[in-house]
Amino acid sequence: MSEILSDAGLDQIFRDARTHSVWQDTGVSDVLLEAIYDLAKMGPTSANCSPMRVLFLRSKEAKERLRPALDAGNVDKTMAAPATAILAYDMEFYEKLPALFPHADARSWFAGKPKAIEQTAQRNGSLQGAYFIIAARALGLDCGPMSGFNRTKVDEVFFADTPWRSNFLCNLGHGDPEKLHPRSPRLDFDEACRLL
User: Fold this and answer.
1) pTM score, whole prediction
2) 90-110 burial, b for 16+ CB within 10 Å, e for fewer?
3) Cα Rg for the chain, rounded, in angstroms?
4) For residue 191, what are the CA distances in angstroms to 58, 187, 196?
5) Which of 85, 98, 188, 63 has the alpha carbon at shortest distance from 145?
6) Which fold has domain 24-175?
7) Residue 113: left if φ>0, alpha if ψ -120 to 50, beta else—which one?
8) Domains of the chain: which residue ranges?
9) Are the CB atoms for 177 and 27 separated by under 8 Å?
10) What's the pLDDT tens digit per position in 95-134?
């Protein structure tokens, strides 16, 4: 674990990676989607709670079910993307803790405690969503993450009668680099960080 990634690897994951809205007509295989999850699941979460759940939409029919929940500016890009992942979190994640964190009674930390459940599921599900984006980029895909959608509608359509709750969406595929806007600025270290 002591080696620094090559500049090419860092470029692919961070420096050259961009949020894409226009997609090439290239599919995304089930094998690749599974590989993304298998990498993303390895990132740390508190007490290994692993609340992220993912629903991959690839068919036209599945995308059409999502369409009414999308903000207007996200419709065309999502319909054109080879795959759209609904990144969700499981509000009953703690039921898996006896297997995921067997050396303590971690389930009891959450069962019957809705505030702890919500905070832990959302925080760690979002953290895992970031790992998901990095994993997709590491495996050669471009991403278009977005929060411009109606969560209530998505949950009603896709997660009714389940403990899953939508967090954000992420389009996946091979983006068209010719259609990218100039990169927006980022804060410098001195603007965003403090050393004590």
Assistant:
1) 0.96
2) bbebbebbeebbeeeebbebb
3) 18
4) 40, 6, 15
5) 85
6) NADH Oxidase (3.40.109)
7) beta
8) 24-175
9) no
10) 999 999 999 999 999 999 999 999 999 999 999 999 999 9
